[in-house]
Amino acid sequence: MSQVQKLLESHPHWSAVETIYHRLQAHGYKAFLAGGCVRDALLGITANDLDVATDATPEQIEELFEKTVNVGKVFGVMRVLVGGADIEVATFRTDGTYKDGRRPEGVHFSSPEEDAKRRDFTVNALFYDLTSKKVLDFVQGEADLRNAILRTVGEPERRFREDHLRLLRAARFVAQLDFILEQTTFDAVKQMAALVKTVSGERLRDEMGKLLKSKAVSKGLEVMVATDLMQLLFPFRLRDNEWFGSYGAKEVWQTLALFFRNAKSEELSSSIQLLKLSTKEQRSIEKAWALWQKPDDFFALNLGKQLQKLTEEGSFWALQVLMLEGSVWASQVKDLFKEWQLWQNQLPRPLLTGEDLKGKLTGKAIGVCLAEAFELQLERKLQTRDEAIAWLQKYLESDSHG
Hints:
4 domains; two-stranded antiparallel sheet; 402 residues; cca-adding enzyme, domain 2; alpha+beta
């Protein structure tokens, strides 16, 4: 058994792919694995997803399988649900005319060779024949894989004019694969870079998220600078384009926060607006950015206030980074996290509530009193309900609150 076959079979969804393959084959249809999973197997990597390409039409796929999802039937793309797995099954196709810089106006179902020729980069245009257990390469993608080169399928200008996001995808795949961008492809990206401004913010966000979690982020960012993509999208990065790592980031907003770390306030706002980030992502990034700008202000807060800020995802992430990068605040963050662990990483129920202040304080004074009591509780200066009630009595009796 080849290394490619072993890697493919090691995927948790392999049995689902086999089921789909045998069903299609039994009814006279071809079924190949396609795209990134073939590329990754040739590179010795287990792919995230296994995608199937076939000569069966979407209607035939619907007839053959009990559970299908129409995710792009007009473009020949279906999802087949088998044994808990969700597998994309697409019909071999040739794309029609592109007029919006994103998708073809129509498609024509075709052959594996024609399907390969309409894809973006040669290394993403490979098929794996499940019958012969051989790689099918119509575009010299295997050679580019061996040479660690990223090259468009066919004429670069045509590929980029079809889908303007491919301009940024070029930088992303350089980062993901740690490849070199082939010169003609590079020249086309630079020449056509301005078209990236027509891409929707949501698509830019997703692509930047993939780039920033790649193994060679710095190379991808360098390509963005060299091709003018950075100038067009995130010009503030031209001042400092270094990348020190993702510090274990799991969410897209976390890597974007690192990417935006040295932006000025107005640059951060425009970048967030450009990428059409959700309100939650925006707030988290802004919290992280604010803490990184003035960490001294955070550590000037009392312990109770600091612990409460740990419930903010952005602040928590910013502190994690300060600790992991070995900053001058690392030991303070470590001590704060130990305190947080003593609270089992969540805020306790307050010992005092608004009910305790009814008829005793009014308006903003209620919030001020409860906030102070809760901070003392977090600092373990008030540890029981009785202690809190006694503290409240003294608080009310003091000249400033009586």
